[in-house]
Design goal:
The strands form 2 sheets. A 7-stranded antiparallel β-sheet has the order 2-10-9-8-7-6-4, with no helix packed on it. It has a 4-stranded antiparallel β-sheet with strand order 5-3-1-11, with no helix packed on it. The relative contact order is 0.21. Helix content is 21%, strand content 32%. By secondary structure, the chain is α+β, with helices and mostly antiparallel strands.
Length: 202
């Protein structure tokens, strides 16, 4: 019984550790490398009312990052957009939530009265990235309190080919399991151990 309790504690602790670090598990880490194509439509002004200069937003951003570690305001490989923006375009990666922030002007914090934009993408280590809320941009010559937010937005990801094969997720690697999948795995292992112990006791 003592060994069973010890095993249960070990598996439970391991599952909690996996969830705590989110996708940042060294055994499943992947270099995410590829291009995010982002769209936004139906923009509205937030702050002092001004005409919306661009009702449609498109951007294509190529970058590579290691999803085991966080990154703040690191330069992307290339970036294009259909609106004016200041260089450099940079990204911030938050491994615990598997979230990518992309911004212009050398910072992922957007500024008013500047040619700037901010994009937030979640689940960037999976095959199904998503934008949890609006795409935002600003333009020079407006109030520092004026921002333009999208009503509709979307994102697609095209992995960079590494010539060696492999699935999507980035750099030809395998997408990293989500934290819920890792907890399910830990629970399954514990259940199997409990079942085996009961069979032996019988």
């Amino acid at each position: 019984m003592d060994s069973l309790i010890s095993t249960a504690r070990s598996v439970a602790f391991g599952g909690l550790m996996l969830v705590g670090v989110g996708v940042s598990t060294s055994a499943n880490a992947t270099i995410i490398s590829g291009t995010y194509d982002v769209t936004g439509t139906g923009f509205t002004a937030v702050g002092p009312s001004v005409p919306v200069p661009f009702n449609n937003f498109t951007a294509s951003v190529t970058l590579s990052f290691d999803n085991t570690t966080g990154a703040i305001n690191q330069p992307v490989t290339t970036a294009t957009a259909n609106i004016p923006f200041s260089q450099p375009v940079v990204y911030t990666y938050l491994p615990l939530s598997d979230t990518l922030l992309i911004g212009a002007g050398g910072n992922t914090t957007i500024l008013g009265n500047a040619n700037d934009f901010q994009i937030t993408i979640k689940n960037v280590s999976t095959l199904s990235p998503s934008i949890p809320f609006f795409v935002t941009y600003t333009t020079e010559g407006t109030s520092i309190m004026t921002f333009f937010n999208s009503v509709n937005e979307g994102v697609t990801f095209t992995p960079t080919s590494d010539g060696g094969g492999g699935g999507g997720g980035g750099g030809g690697g395998t997408p990293v399991p989500e934290p819920s999948s890792l907890m399910l795995l830990a629970t399954a292992v514990l259940g199997a151990r409990l079942f085996r112990h009961r069979r032996k006791a019988d």
